[in-house]
Design a protein that fits this description.
This protein is mainly α and about 150 residues long. It has four helices and no strands. Helix 1 crosses helix 2.
């Protein structure tokens, strides 16, 4: 009301009616300003409460998502462990199969080697005599081409 009285006094020389109307208008605007300020404060408080509620809901939702994510991660970890166990089992089976085949291969190689050595041992005298016979022969006659 402070401005309304000052305006009334300042514009009194225009006429009391006009000054009163002007003062009334200023008073009305001041009251609207006060009401608007109060409404703004109430709106601000209401919005702050709504923001807090939204924050709480969002926090709860984030926690829920975190829990779901942790559960999914655990499922994936279990699946990885299952796959790792299956893989290890397959590797062990393949390893056992490989050892079996390696044993068969090397056994065959050993038997073949023993057979060759035995043949050389049995036939060593024949081979030695054949080599000596070859030394005595003239090889040139075997490689010459007669026409």
């Amino acid at each position: 009301m402070g401005y309304a009285l000052k305006i009334y006094e300042a514009f009194q020389d225009l006429g009391k009616d006009k000054a009163a109307i002007l003062a009334e208008f200023v008073e009305y605007m001041e009251s609207k300003k006060a009401a608007t300020t109060e409404e703004l404060k109430e709106t601000e408080l209401r919005l702050q409460k709504e923001i807090e509620v939204a924050k709480l809901e969002l926090t709860k939702h984030i926690e829920k998502v975190k829990e779901e994510f942790k559960k999914e991660v655990e499922k994936v970890k279990l699946e990885i462990e299952k796959i790792r166990a299956e893989f290890s089992e397959r590797v062990e089976k393949i390893r056992a199969e490989l050892v079996k085949w390696m044993f068969a291969f090397w056994t065959g190689q050993l038997i073949a080697l023993i057979g060759i050595l035995k043949w050389f041992y049995i036939n060593k005298f024949e081979i030695i005599t054949e080599v000596e016979d070859v030394k005595d022969k003239d090889w040139r006659k075997f490689f010459s081409y007669s026409s």
